[in-house]
Amino acid sequence: MTEIRSRFHKELSDLEQTLLTVADQAEQMVALAVDAVCVPDMDKAARVMALDQWVDRTYLDVHNRWMAVMALQQPIAGDLRMMSVLLHLNTTLERMGDQCVNIAKLAQVTFGLPRSERIVAQIREMGDLVRPMIRTGVEALVRRDLEQARLLPAMDEPVDRLNRNMYKEVVDCGPDPAILEWATRMMMVSRALERIGDQVVDIAEQTAFLLTGEMVEFNEEAVPGQTEHDG
Amino acid sequence: MKAEDYAPARTEQAPPAIRVEAPGAKSDTEPSDDAEIVFDVVGLSVYYRDFQAVRDITIPVRQKEITALIGPSGCGKSTILRCFNRMNDLIEEARIEGSVNFHGIDIYEEDVDPVELRRRVGMVFQKPNPFPKSIYDNVAFGPRVGGFKVNMDDLVEESLTRAALWDEVKDKLSESALALSGGQQQRLCIARAIATSPDVVLMDEPCSALDPIATLRIEELMQELKEDYTILIVTHNMQQAARVSDRTAFLTVDVNEVGQRTGYLVEFDTTNRIFTSPARPETEAYITGRFG
Protein backbone atom coordinates (compact mmCIF):
# COMPACT_ATOMS: atom_id res chain seq x y z
CA MET A 1 0.00 0.00 0.00
CA THR A 2 1.36 3.37 -1.02
CA GLU A 3 1.12 5.87 1.80
CA ILE A 4 0.99 9.53 0.85
CA ARG A 5 0.03 11.02 4.20
CA SER A 6 2.62 9.25 6.30
CA ARG A 7 3.27 12.14 8.69
CA PHE A 8 -0.42 12.49 9.47
CA HIS A 9 -1.00 8.77 9.83
CA LYS A 10 2.00 8.49 12.16
CA GLU A 11 0.53 11.24 14.35
CA LEU A 12 -2.81 9.45 14.37
CA SER A 13 -1.16 6.19 15.36
CA ASP A 14 0.97 7.92 18.04
CA LEU A 15 -2.15 9.48 19.58
CA GLU A 16 -3.82 6.08 19.71
CA GLN A 17 -0.71 4.54 21.30
CA THR A 18 -0.60 7.24 23.98
CA LEU A 19 -4.23 6.61 24.87
CA LEU A 20 -3.70 2.84 24.98
CA THR A 21 -0.96 3.47 27.55
CA VAL A 22 -3.42 5.57 29.56
CA ALA A 23 -5.97 2.74 29.34
CA ASP A 24 -3.36 0.33 30.76
CA GLN A 25 -2.77 2.76 33.60
CA ALA A 26 -6.50 3.06 34.22
CA GLU A 27 -6.79 -0.70 34.58
CA GLN A 28 -3.88 -0.63 37.03
CA MET A 29 -5.50 2.25 38.95
CA VAL A 30 -8.74 0.30 39.37
CA ALA A 31 -6.79 -2.60 40.90
CA LEU A 32 -4.90 -0.25 43.23
CA ALA A 33 -8.04 1.66 44.25
CA VAL A 34 -10.01 -1.51 45.04
CA ASP A 35 -7.05 -2.82 47.09
CA ALA A 36 -6.81 0.53 48.86
CA VAL A 37 -10.41 0.09 50.04
CA CYS A 38 -10.51 -3.66 50.61
CA VAL A 39 -7.14 -4.44 52.21
CA PRO A 40 -7.17 -1.49 53.28
CA ASP A 41 -3.85 -0.11 52.00
CA MET A 42 -3.07 3.63 52.20
CA ASP A 43 0.11 3.32 50.12
CA LYS A 44 -1.98 2.09 47.22
CA ALA A 45 -4.43 4.97 47.71
CA ALA A 46 -1.49 7.38 47.42
CA ARG A 47 -0.25 5.61 44.27
CA VAL A 48 -3.67 6.06 42.65
CA MET A 49 -3.45 9.82 43.28
CA ALA A 50 0.07 9.98 41.87
CA LEU A 51 -0.91 8.01 38.75
CA ASP A 52 -3.90 10.29 38.22
CA GLN A 53 -1.60 13.29 38.01
CA TRP A 54 0.14 11.56 35.11
CA VAL A 55 -3.24 10.74 33.53
CA ASP A 56 -4.32 14.40 33.81
CA ARG A 57 -1.09 15.68 32.26
CA THR A 58 -1.40 13.18 29.42
CA TYR A 59 -5.03 14.23 28.90
CA LEU A 60 -3.94 17.82 28.28
CA ASP A 61 -1.07 16.73 26.07
CA VAL A 62 -3.36 14.53 23.93
CA HIS A 63 -5.91 17.34 23.71
CA ASN A 64 -3.29 19.74 22.35
CA ARG A 65 -1.93 17.21 19.88
CA TRP A 66 -5.48 16.36 18.77
CA MET A 67 -6.25 20.02 18.09
CA ALA A 68 -3.08 20.39 16.03
CA VAL A 69 -3.85 17.32 13.91
CA MET A 70 -7.40 18.56 13.24
CA ALA A 71 -6.21 22.02 12.27
CA LEU A 72 -3.26 20.95 10.15
CA GLN A 73 -4.35 17.67 8.57
CA GLN A 74 -8.15 17.91 8.15
CA PRO A 75 -8.85 14.20 8.48
CA ILE A 76 -11.76 12.64 6.61
CA ALA A 77 -13.64 9.32 6.39
CA GLY A 78 -12.14 6.58 8.59
CA ASP A 79 -9.43 8.96 9.78
CA LEU A 80 -12.10 11.45 10.86
CA ARG A 81 -14.00 8.76 12.75
CA MET A 82 -10.74 7.71 14.43
CA MET A 83 -10.14 11.30 15.52
CA SER A 84 -13.64 11.43 16.98
CA VAL A 85 -13.01 8.17 18.83
CA LEU A 86 -9.69 9.44 20.19
CA LEU A 87 -11.31 12.62 21.50
CA HIS A 88 -13.96 10.58 23.34
CA LEU A 89 -11.40 8.09 24.57
CA ASN A 90 -9.23 10.86 25.98
CA THR A 91 -12.11 12.30 28.01
CA THR A 92 -13.42 8.90 29.07
CA LEU A 93 -10.05 7.69 30.33
CA GLU A 94 -9.45 10.91 32.22
CA ARG A 95 -12.80 10.46 33.95
CA MET A 96 -12.01 6.84 34.76
CA GLY A 97 -8.88 8.10 36.46
CA ASP A 98 -10.99 10.57 38.44
CA GLN A 99 -13.32 7.77 39.57
CA CYS A 100 -10.30 5.81 40.81
CA VAL A 101 -9.20 8.90 42.75
CA ASN A 102 -12.69 9.11 44.28
CA ILE A 103 -12.36 5.50 45.43
CA ALA A 104 -8.85 6.11 46.81
CA LYS A 105 -10.09 9.14 48.79
CA LEU A 106 -12.97 7.07 50.20
CA ALA A 107 -10.38 4.47 51.24
CA GLN A 108 -8.56 7.21 53.15
CA VAL A 109 -11.62 8.62 54.95
CA THR A 110 -12.91 5.14 55.92
CA PHE A 111 -9.52 3.87 57.12
CA GLY A 112 -9.85 2.32 60.59
CA LEU A 113 -13.69 2.22 60.66
CA PRO A 114 -15.46 -1.05 61.44
CA ARG A 115 -16.53 -2.85 58.23
CA SER A 116 -18.68 -5.57 56.72
CA GLU A 117 -16.73 -8.37 55.05
CA ARG A 118 -19.74 -9.14 52.84
CA ILE A 119 -19.58 -5.64 51.38
CA VAL A 120 -15.77 -5.83 51.03
CA ALA A 121 -16.23 -9.06 49.08
CA GLN A 122 -18.76 -7.37 46.80
CA ILE A 123 -16.49 -4.40 46.14
CA ARG A 124 -13.70 -6.82 45.29
CA GLU A 125 -15.98 -8.74 42.98
CA MET A 126 -16.94 -5.54 41.20
CA GLY A 127 -13.27 -4.64 40.76
CA ASP A 128 -12.60 -8.13 39.39
CA LEU A 129 -15.40 -7.64 36.87
CA VAL A 130 -14.47 -4.11 35.80
CA ARG A 131 -10.74 -4.67 35.12
CA PRO A 132 -11.30 -7.37 32.46
CA MET A 133 -13.90 -5.06 30.93
CA ILE A 134 -11.25 -2.39 30.44
CA ARG A 135 -8.92 -4.97 28.90
CA THR A 136 -11.62 -6.34 26.59
CA GLY A 137 -12.82 -2.88 25.57
CA VAL A 138 -9.32 -1.70 24.73
CA GLU A 139 -8.46 -4.92 22.89
CA ALA A 140 -11.61 -4.57 20.79
CA LEU A 141 -10.45 -1.10 19.78
CA VAL A 142 -6.87 -2.18 19.07
CA ARG A 143 -8.02 -5.17 17.00
CA ARG A 144 -10.86 -3.22 15.36
CA ASP A 145 -13.07 -6.10 16.47
CA LEU A 146 -16.78 -5.30 16.39
CA GLU A 147 -17.88 -8.63 17.89
CA GLN A 148 -15.54 -8.16 20.84
CA ALA A 149 -16.80 -4.60 21.37
CA ARG A 150 -20.34 -5.93 21.54
CA LEU A 151 -19.40 -8.20 24.47
CA LEU A 152 -19.17 -5.20 26.77
CA PRO A 153 -22.85 -4.56 27.65
CA ALA A 154 -23.19 -8.18 28.82
CA MET A 155 -19.96 -7.88 30.84
CA ASP A 156 -21.29 -4.69 32.41
CA GLU A 157 -24.58 -6.25 33.48
CA PRO A 158 -23.31 -8.02 36.67
CA VAL A 159 -21.51 -4.83 37.69
CA ASP A 160 -24.77 -2.92 37.47
CA ARG A 161 -26.54 -5.66 39.40
CA LEU A 162 -23.97 -5.63 42.23
CA ASN A 163 -24.23 -1.84 42.40
CA ARG A 164 -28.01 -1.99 42.68
CA ASN A 165 -27.71 -4.66 45.38
CA MET A 166 -25.30 -2.55 47.44
CA TYR A 167 -28.15 -0.50 48.91
CA LYS A 168 -29.62 -3.64 50.45
CA GLU A 169 -26.26 -4.70 51.85
CA VAL A 170 -25.83 -1.31 53.51
CA VAL A 171 -29.31 -1.49 55.10
CA ASP A 172 -28.46 -4.99 56.35
CA CYS A 173 -25.46 -3.59 58.25
CA GLY A 174 -27.89 -2.56 61.01
CA PRO A 175 -28.15 0.53 63.19
CA ASP A 176 -24.51 0.81 64.41
CA PRO A 177 -23.50 4.40 63.34
CA ALA A 178 -19.79 3.54 62.97
CA ILE A 179 -20.32 0.71 60.51
CA LEU A 180 -23.06 2.71 58.75
CA GLU A 181 -20.62 5.53 58.08
CA TRP A 182 -18.21 3.07 56.50
CA ALA A 183 -21.01 1.30 54.60
CA THR A 184 -22.54 4.43 53.11
CA ARG A 185 -19.09 5.38 51.79
CA MET A 186 -18.87 1.92 50.24
CA MET A 187 -22.05 2.72 48.33
CA MET A 188 -20.10 5.56 46.71
CA VAL A 189 -17.21 3.20 45.94
CA SER A 190 -19.68 0.83 44.33
CA ARG A 191 -21.16 3.67 42.32
CA ALA A 192 -17.70 4.74 41.11
CA LEU A 193 -16.94 1.20 39.93
CA GLU A 194 -20.30 1.02 38.21
CA ARG A 195 -19.52 4.29 36.39
CA ILE A 196 -16.17 2.93 35.22
CA GLY A 197 -18.04 -0.07 33.79
CA ASP A 198 -20.37 2.28 31.91
CA GLN A 199 -17.40 4.23 30.61
CA VAL A 200 -15.88 1.06 29.16
CA VAL A 201 -19.20 0.41 27.39
CA ASP A 202 -18.86 3.94 25.96
CA ILE A 203 -15.44 3.01 24.59
CA ALA A 204 -16.98 -0.08 22.98
CA GLU A 205 -19.67 2.10 21.38
CA GLN A 206 -16.93 4.30 19.98
CA THR A 207 -15.19 1.23 18.55
CA ALA A 208 -18.43 0.22 16.86
CA PHE A 209 -18.78 3.74 15.44
CA LEU A 210 -15.22 3.60 14.12
CA LEU A 211 -15.94 0.32 12.34
CA THR A 212 -19.49 0.88 11.09
CA GLY A 213 -19.78 4.66 10.74
CA GLU A 214 -22.97 4.56 12.78
CA MET A 215 -23.28 5.84 16.32
CA VAL A 216 -25.49 3.45 18.23
CA GLU A 217 -25.88 3.38 21.95
CA PHE A 218 -25.32 -0.10 23.40
CA ASN A 219 -27.80 -1.32 25.94
CA GLU A 220 -29.59 -4.53 26.79
CA GLU A 221 -31.44 -4.41 23.46
CA ALA A 222 -28.33 -3.77 21.44
CA VAL A 223 -26.17 -6.60 22.74
CA PRO A 224 -24.73 -9.13 20.29
CA GLY A 225 -26.94 -10.40 17.56
CA GLN A 226 -29.72 -7.88 17.93
CA THR A 227 -28.71 -4.87 15.87
CA GLU A 228 -29.22 -4.32 12.19
CA HIS A 229 -25.46 -4.46 11.63
CA ASP A 230 -25.69 -8.21 11.95
CA GLY A 231 -26.35 -10.06 8.84
CA MET B 1 -25.97 12.30 44.33
CA LYS B 2 -29.54 11.12 44.33
CA ALA B 3 -30.91 8.37 46.54
CA GLU B 4 -32.33 6.47 43.58
CA ASP B 5 -28.81 5.96 42.27
CA TYR B 6 -28.40 3.41 45.02
CA ALA B 7 -31.86 1.92 45.01
CA PRO B 8 -32.41 -1.66 43.91
CA ALA B 9 -33.73 -1.98 40.41
CA ARG B 10 -37.38 -1.00 40.27
CA THR B 11 -37.93 -2.46 36.90
CA GLU B 12 -36.26 -5.20 34.93
CA GLN B 13 -37.44 -3.60 31.70
CA ALA B 14 -34.61 -2.20 29.63
CA PRO B 15 -35.05 1.30 28.21
CA PRO B 16 -35.76 1.46 24.50
CA ALA B 17 -32.70 1.48 22.26
CA ILE B 18 -31.60 5.00 21.39
CA ARG B 19 -30.24 5.46 17.91
CA VAL B 20 -28.28 8.56 17.11
CA GLU B 21 -27.68 9.16 13.43
CA ALA B 22 -24.03 9.38 12.41
CA PRO B 23 -22.86 12.41 10.42
CA GLY B 24 -22.78 10.22 7.37
CA ALA B 25 -26.40 9.27 7.75
CA LYS B 26 -29.42 11.27 6.65
CA SER B 27 -30.05 14.55 8.43
CA ASP B 28 -31.61 17.93 7.73
CA THR B 29 -28.45 19.10 6.00
CA GLU B 30 -28.52 16.20 3.56
CA PRO B 31 -29.68 16.80 0.01
CA SER B 32 -33.19 15.58 -0.66
CA ASP B 33 -33.80 12.67 -2.99
CA ASP B 34 -37.01 14.40 -4.06
CA ALA B 35 -35.20 16.92 -6.27
CA GLU B 36 -35.78 16.42 -9.98
CA ILE B 37 -33.08 14.55 -11.88
CA VAL B 38 -31.85 17.04 -14.48
CA PHE B 39 -29.21 14.82 -16.02
CA ASP B 40 -29.57 11.08 -15.90
CA VAL B 41 -26.39 9.43 -17.10
CA VAL B 42 -27.00 5.73 -17.65
CA GLY B 43 -24.34 3.19 -18.56
CA LEU B 44 -22.15 5.79 -20.24
CA SER B 45 -18.95 4.62 -21.95
CA VAL B 46 -16.70 6.89 -23.99
CA TYR B 47 -14.38 5.62 -26.70
CA TYR B 48 -11.65 7.34 -28.67
CA ARG B 49 -11.42 5.11 -31.73
CA ASP B 50 -11.01 1.62 -30.13
CA PHE B 51 -9.78 2.89 -26.82
CA GLN B 52 -12.32 2.92 -24.02
CA ALA B 53 -11.67 6.03 -21.91
CA VAL B 54 -14.48 5.47 -19.41
CA ARG B 55 -16.86 2.62 -18.90
CA ASP B 56 -20.39 2.15 -17.66
CA ILE B 57 -20.94 5.38 -15.73
CA THR B 58 -24.34 5.86 -14.12
CA ILE B 59 -24.87 9.14 -12.26
CA PRO B 60 -28.15 10.95 -11.60
CA VAL B 61 -27.57 14.73 -11.34
CA ARG B 62 -30.26 16.51 -9.34
CA GLN B 63 -31.66 19.98 -9.84
CA LYS B 64 -30.08 22.88 -7.95
CA GLU B 65 -27.48 20.67 -6.39
CA ILE B 66 -23.72 20.71 -6.78
CA THR B 67 -22.41 17.37 -7.91
CA ALA B 68 -18.65 16.81 -7.71
CA LEU B 69 -16.58 14.36 -9.72
CA ILE B 70 -13.36 13.37 -7.97
CA GLY B 71 -10.67 10.80 -8.62
CA PRO B 72 -7.04 10.40 -9.66
CA SER B 73 -5.63 11.87 -12.87
CA GLY B 74 -6.70 10.02 -15.97
CA CYS B 75 -9.85 8.52 -14.46
CA GLY B 76 -12.03 10.28 -17.01
CA LYS B 77 -13.60 13.02 -14.91
CA SER B 78 -13.22 15.70 -17.59
CA THR B 79 -14.18 13.24 -20.32
CA ILE B 80 -17.44 12.57 -18.53
CA LEU B 81 -18.06 16.26 -17.86
CA ARG B 82 -17.62 17.02 -21.55
CA CYS B 83 -20.35 14.49 -22.38
CA PHE B 84 -22.92 16.65 -20.60
CA ASN B 85 -22.84 19.30 -23.34
CA ARG B 86 -21.41 17.18 -26.16
CA MET B 87 -18.05 18.89 -26.15
CA ASN B 88 -16.60 15.54 -27.17
CA ASP B 89 -18.36 16.01 -30.53
CA LEU B 90 -15.46 18.30 -31.37
CA ILE B 91 -13.02 15.41 -31.06
CA GLU B 92 -12.93 13.21 -34.11
CA GLU B 93 -13.31 9.50 -33.48
CA ALA B 94 -14.88 10.07 -30.08
CA ARG B 95 -18.09 8.13 -29.57
CA ILE B 96 -20.26 7.13 -26.67
CA GLU B 97 -22.39 4.22 -25.58
CA GLY B 98 -25.19 4.45 -23.06
CA SER B 99 -27.28 7.54 -22.66
CA VAL B 100 -27.11 11.05 -21.24
CA ASN B 101 -30.67 12.19 -20.60
CA PHE B 102 -31.32 15.88 -20.05
CA HIS B 103 -34.81 16.45 -18.67
CA GLY B 104 -35.69 13.04 -20.05
CA ILE B 105 -34.30 13.64 -23.56
CA ASP B 106 -31.22 11.76 -24.74
CA ILE B 107 -28.87 14.55 -25.82
CA TYR B 108 -27.07 12.24 -28.24
CA GLU B 109 -30.19 11.75 -30.35
CA GLU B 110 -29.72 13.03 -33.89
CA ASP B 111 -32.35 15.76 -33.67
CA VAL B 112 -30.72 17.44 -30.69
CA ASP B 113 -28.99 20.70 -31.64
CA PRO B 114 -25.64 20.82 -29.81
CA VAL B 115 -25.56 24.63 -29.99
CA GLU B 116 -28.91 24.94 -28.24
CA LEU B 117 -27.78 22.25 -25.78
CA ARG B 118 -24.66 24.25 -24.94
CA ARG B 119 -26.77 27.35 -24.36
CA ARG B 120 -28.67 25.42 -21.70
CA VAL B 121 -25.58 23.67 -20.35
CA GLY B 122 -22.85 26.24 -19.88
CA MET B 123 -19.21 25.50 -19.17
CA VAL B 124 -16.37 27.05 -17.20
CA PHE B 125 -12.88 25.79 -17.84
CA GLN B 126 -9.75 25.22 -15.79
CA LYS B 127 -7.93 28.28 -17.04
CA PRO B 128 -9.90 31.49 -17.24
CA ASN B 129 -10.41 32.05 -20.99
CA PRO B 130 -12.09 35.42 -21.56
CA PHE B 131 -12.30 36.59 -25.15
CA PRO B 132 -9.85 39.36 -26.04
CA LYS B 133 -12.72 41.81 -25.92
CA SER B 134 -14.17 44.21 -23.41
CA ILE B 135 -15.71 42.97 -20.18
CA TYR B 136 -19.14 43.98 -21.50
CA ASP B 137 -18.69 42.18 -24.81
CA ASN B 138 -17.57 39.00 -23.10
CA VAL B 139 -20.84 38.77 -21.19
CA ALA B 140 -22.97 39.93 -24.13
CA PHE B 141 -21.34 37.54 -26.59
CA GLY B 142 -23.56 34.51 -26.01
CA PRO B 143 -26.87 36.37 -25.92
CA ARG B 144 -25.96 38.27 -29.13
CA VAL B 145 -24.99 35.08 -30.94
CA GLY B 146 -28.17 33.48 -29.68
CA GLY B 147 -30.21 36.42 -30.91
CA PHE B 148 -31.57 37.24 -27.47
CA LYS B 149 -34.10 40.07 -27.65
CA VAL B 150 -33.42 41.64 -24.29
CA ASN B 151 -32.06 44.85 -22.83
CA MET B 152 -28.41 43.94 -23.13
CA ASP B 153 -27.22 46.42 -20.49
CA ASP B 154 -29.57 44.88 -17.95
CA LEU B 155 -28.54 41.35 -18.86
CA VAL B 156 -24.82 42.21 -18.57
CA GLU B 157 -25.38 43.84 -15.19
CA GLU B 158 -27.49 40.98 -13.90
CA SER B 159 -25.00 38.34 -15.06
CA LEU B 160 -22.04 40.18 -13.57
CA THR B 161 -23.95 40.71 -10.32
CA ARG B 162 -24.80 37.01 -10.07
CA ALA B 163 -21.15 36.20 -10.69
CA ALA B 164 -20.21 38.52 -7.80
CA LEU B 165 -18.13 40.70 -10.12
CA TRP B 166 -20.37 43.73 -10.85
CA ASP B 167 -19.07 45.98 -8.07
CA GLU B 168 -15.49 45.44 -9.14
CA VAL B 169 -16.00 46.13 -12.86
CA LYS B 170 -19.05 48.39 -13.22
CA ASP B 171 -16.89 51.45 -13.90
CA LYS B 172 -14.71 49.78 -16.51
CA LEU B 173 -17.04 47.66 -18.61
CA SER B 174 -15.42 48.80 -21.83
CA GLU B 175 -11.92 47.84 -20.70
CA SER B 176 -10.27 44.65 -21.87
CA ALA B 177 -11.24 41.52 -19.95
CA LEU B 178 -7.59 40.46 -20.16
CA ALA B 179 -6.66 43.27 -17.74
CA LEU B 180 -8.58 41.57 -14.91
CA SER B 181 -6.92 39.37 -12.29
CA GLY B 182 -7.13 35.57 -12.65
CA GLY B 183 -9.92 35.28 -10.10
CA GLN B 184 -11.86 38.11 -11.73
CA GLN B 185 -11.38 36.57 -15.16
CA GLN B 186 -12.79 33.28 -13.90
CA ARG B 187 -15.82 35.05 -12.41
CA LEU B 188 -16.23 36.84 -15.75
CA CYS B 189 -16.25 33.44 -17.46
CA ILE B 190 -18.95 32.35 -15.01
CA ALA B 191 -20.92 35.54 -15.83
CA ARG B 192 -20.50 34.73 -19.52
CA ALA B 193 -21.71 31.17 -18.94
CA ILE B 194 -24.85 32.24 -17.08
CA ALA B 195 -25.69 35.12 -19.44
CA THR B 196 -27.44 32.68 -21.78
CA SER B 197 -29.74 31.50 -18.94
CA PRO B 198 -28.54 27.92 -18.78
CA ASP B 199 -30.07 25.24 -16.52
CA VAL B 200 -26.74 23.65 -15.78
CA VAL B 201 -23.20 24.96 -15.37
CA LEU B 202 -20.30 22.55 -15.88
CA MET B 203 -17.07 23.52 -14.13
CA ASP B 204 -13.85 21.75 -15.06
CA GLU B 205 -11.30 22.47 -12.31
CA PRO B 206 -12.51 26.08 -12.09
CA CYS B 207 -10.11 27.04 -9.30
CA SER B 208 -6.94 25.17 -10.13
CA ALA B 209 -5.32 28.28 -11.65
CA LEU B 210 -6.43 30.58 -8.81
CA ASP B 211 -4.92 31.59 -5.48
CA PRO B 212 -6.62 30.45 -2.23
CA ILE B 213 -8.65 33.63 -1.70
CA ALA B 214 -9.89 33.70 -5.30
CA THR B 215 -10.68 29.99 -4.89
CA LEU B 216 -12.82 30.63 -1.81
CA ARG B 217 -14.65 33.42 -3.63
CA ILE B 218 -15.56 31.06 -6.46
CA GLU B 219 -16.66 28.44 -3.95
CA GLU B 220 -18.83 31.02 -2.20
CA LEU B 221 -20.22 32.07 -5.56
CA MET B 222 -21.09 28.44 -6.35
CA GLN B 223 -23.27 28.31 -3.24
CA GLU B 224 -25.14 31.39 -4.48
CA LEU B 225 -25.44 30.05 -8.03
CA LYS B 226 -26.89 26.81 -6.65
CA GLU B 227 -30.08 28.72 -5.89
CA ASP B 228 -30.73 28.99 -9.63
CA TYR B 229 -28.55 26.48 -11.40
CA THR B 230 -27.53 22.85 -11.29
CA ILE B 231 -23.75 22.62 -11.08
CA LEU B 232 -21.34 19.85 -11.95
CA ILE B 233 -17.75 20.33 -10.89
CA VAL B 234 -14.62 18.34 -11.64
CA THR B 235 -11.98 18.97 -9.02
CA HIS B 236 -8.63 17.56 -7.99
CA ASN B 237 -9.03 19.24 -4.64
CA MET B 238 -10.91 16.78 -2.44
CA GLN B 239 -11.44 19.32 0.30
CA GLN B 240 -13.03 21.58 -2.30
CA ALA B 241 -15.44 18.81 -3.25
CA ALA B 242 -16.18 18.31 0.45
CA ARG B 243 -16.73 22.03 1.03
CA VAL B 244 -18.95 22.84 -1.92
CA SER B 245 -20.82 19.80 -3.18
CA ASP B 246 -24.01 18.01 -2.19
CA ARG B 247 -23.15 14.74 -3.86
CA THR B 248 -19.85 13.26 -4.91
CA ALA B 249 -18.95 10.69 -7.52
CA PHE B 250 -15.62 8.96 -6.92
CA LEU B 251 -14.01 7.55 -10.04
CA THR B 252 -10.83 5.63 -10.46
CA VAL B 253 -8.91 4.00 -13.26
CA ASP B 254 -7.93 0.53 -14.49
CA VAL B 255 -4.75 0.14 -16.49
CA ASN B 256 -4.68 -2.80 -18.91
CA GLU B 257 -1.68 -4.85 -20.04
CA VAL B 258 -0.79 -2.38 -22.82
CA GLY B 259 -1.04 0.62 -20.53
CA GLN B 260 -4.47 1.86 -21.60
CA ARG B 261 -6.38 3.58 -18.83
CA THR B 262 -10.11 3.17 -18.43
CA GLY B 263 -11.96 5.18 -15.85
CA TYR B 264 -14.94 3.84 -13.93
CA LEU B 265 -17.26 4.92 -11.15
CA VAL B 266 -16.49 3.44 -7.74
CA GLU B 267 -19.06 5.17 -5.60
CA PHE B 268 -21.70 7.86 -5.89
CA ASP B 269 -23.33 9.14 -2.72
CA THR B 270 -24.03 12.26 -0.70
CA THR B 271 -20.84 14.20 -0.08
CA ASN B 272 -21.43 13.86 3.64
CA ARG B 273 -21.45 10.08 3.36
CA ILE B 274 -18.45 9.93 1.01
CA PHE B 275 -16.31 11.99 3.39
CA THR B 276 -17.41 10.44 6.69
CA SER B 277 -18.26 6.82 5.95
CA PRO B 278 -17.65 5.84 2.34
CA ALA B 279 -19.08 2.44 1.51
CA ARG B 280 -16.23 1.26 -0.70
CA PRO B 281 -12.70 0.60 0.56
CA GLU B 282 -11.25 2.09 -2.67
CA THR B 283 -12.94 5.41 -1.88
CA GLU B 284 -11.68 5.33 1.70
CA ALA B 285 -8.14 4.55 0.53
CA TYR B 286 -8.12 7.35 -2.04
CA ILE B 287 -9.56 10.13 0.07
CA THR B 288 -7.49 9.29 3.14
CA GLY B 289 -4.29 9.03 1.10
CA ARG B 290 -3.73 5.29 1.49
CA PHE B 291 -3.50 4.00 -2.03
CA GLY B 292 -4.10 0.32 -2.65
Which helices and strands occur, and which strands form pairs?
The complex is a heterodimer of chains A (231) and B (292).
Chain A: E1 2-3, H1 6-38, H2 42-73, H3 77-109, H4 117-143, H5 146-149, H6 152-172, H7 177-212
Helix pairs in contact in A: 1-2, 1-3, 1-4, 2-3, 3-7, 4-6, 4-7, 6-7
Chain B: E1 37-48, E2 51-62, E3 66-70, H1 77-83, E4 94-102, E5 105-106, H2 114-120, E6 121-124, H3 135-145, H4 152-162, H5 166-169, H6 182-194, E7 200-204, H7 212-225, E8 230-234, H8 238-244, E9 247-255, E10 261-270, H9 271-276, H10 281-287, E11 290-291
Parallel strand pairs in B: 2-10, 3-8, 3-9, 6-7, 7-8
Antiparallel strand pairs in B: 1-2, 1-4, 4-5, 9-10
Task: Walk me through this protein's architecture.
The complex is a heterodimer of chains A (231) and B (292). Chain A has helices at 6-38, 42-73, 77-109, 117-143, 146-149, 152-172, 177-212; one strand spanning 2-3. By secondary structure, chain A is mainly alpha-helical. In chain A, helix 1 packs parallel to helix 3, helix 3 (77-109) runs antiparallel to helix 7 (177-212) and helix 4 runs antiparallel to helix 6. The two termini of chain A are 30 Å apart. Chain B has 292 residues and is of the alpha/beta class. Chain B has a 10-stranded mixed beta sheet, sandwiched between helices. In chain B, strand 1 and strand 2 (51-62) form a beta hairpin. The longest helix of chain B is centred in the last third of the chain and has 14 residues, at 212-225. Chain B is globular, with a radius of gyration of 23 Å. The chains are: A mainly alpha (231), B alpha/beta (292). Strand 1 (2-3) of chain A pairs antiparallel with strand 11 (290-291) of chain B, so a sheet runs across the interface.
